Amino acid sequence: MEWLLLARLLWSLLFLCADLTEGVTITSTEQTMVTKALGEKVTLLCQYTLAAGDEGLLDIEWVVLEPKKEQPVIMYSQNTVYDKYHMAGRVQFVNQNPADGDASIDILNLQPADSGTYQCKVKKAPDMQTHRVQLSVYEKPQKTKCYVEGSQEIGTDVTLKCKSQGGTPLISYHWGKMGKEGLPDRSSLNSDTGDLLIKNASRASSGTYKCVASNRVGADECSLVLNVTPPVNRAGTIAGAVIGTLLGLCLLAFIIFCCCKKQREKKYEKEVHHDIREDVPPPKSRGSTARSYIGSNRSSLGSMSPSNMDGYAKTQYNKVPSEDFERTSPQNPNFQPPKYGHASRMGDITVV
């Protein structure tokens, strides 16, 4: 019995020594991957215990592991917190005193650039332990729009479209029909593109449809109303289009005719105005002036008395232009001007 008791005592001492030499231990190792939405808050866990034999200074360090270096996030050393790094103002320790065994941190207002591998390092000489957490920051789907592509007529294939304007891939789309009927039997869904194809649509296909776009951090939705109608009378539509086109051409031809007619009228008015100016008589020539001059003198002879007839004949004919006079005078060089005798009455001329 004494040997049995001694063996148990030795085993207890061995386990006690193992506990004393274990040193720093991080206990929150279950958190290895975290996915959060843009703008949210995340808590990265790093809880630990210290061995009784560790008497050195306690240092806590959070870093982001990058391909070529470690980028500091927040630190604790010698009872002081250092947080003036690239996340300044958005990161803090959960416990105001990280030395109490909780080195977990909160990151506020997450951004896509915050995605990465974070490492918590707890060191107290002579021991040190690390723990890594993978953080992924996603953007929720947003501004999702629903619309119909193709004709909404009976017997045609109709495609319902659903697309989000924002959101981190991969985004999955799901369509549903409001009410108890569910999606039509002849419909097929592509969850990657958001297309719902309804083949050979009928009146039963009409109704309100809702689309939900979702990814790992959130969802967004939209809806539309599908109204399947009988085919349109295409012959009447074509006839109406032809008639409308002909009327339009007739109206255009009438406008062109009116414009041309107006142009011709303006051109005619200009030509008439020009012809009137050409009809104005030209200035009298020198010969016509001489003839009119002689005629006026002959008409004035009847009012003259016989006493001054001789002097008038001599002086007045000398004023007639020589050119005209030579053309009207006789060719006989022996021609003598006639002599005038006395008249019995005023105004009568008697040739002697």
From TrEMBL:
Signal peptide, first to last residue: 1-23
Segments crossing the lipid bilayer: 238-260
Key word Membrane present: yes
Topological type in the membrane: Single-pass type I membrane protein
GO molecular function, one term: cell adhesion molecule binding
Entry's Gene Ontology cellular component terms: adherens junction; basolateral plasma membrane; bicellular tight junction; intercalated disc
Subcellular location, record wording: Basolateral cell membrane; Cell junction, Adherens junction; Cell junction, Tight junction
Region Disordered: start-end pairs: 272-343
UniProt GO BP: homotypic cell-cell adhesion
Domain Ig-like: 39-136, 141-229
InterPro entries documented for this protein: EJ_Adhesion_Regulator, Ig-like_dom, Ig-like_dom_sf, Ig-like_fold, Ig_sub, Ig_sub2, Ig_V-set
Composition bias type Basic and acidic residues, residue spans: 272-281
Superkingdom of origin organism: Eukaryota
PROSITE patterns referenced in this protein's UniProt entry, alphabetically: IG_LIKE
Entry keyword ATP-binding: no
Assigned keywords, A-Z: Cell adhesion, Cell junction, Cell membrane, Disulfide bond, Glycoprotein, Immunoglobulin domain, Membrane, Receptor, Repeat, Signal, Tight junction, Transmembrane, Transmembrane helix
Biased composition (Polar residues): 286-308
Entry-linked PANTHER family: COXSACKIEVIRUS AND ADENOVIRUS RECEPTOR, COXSACKIEVIRUS AND ADENOVIRUS RECEPTOR-RELATED
Protein name: Coxsackievirus and adenovirus receptor isoform X2
Species in which this protein is naturally found: Podarcis lilfordi
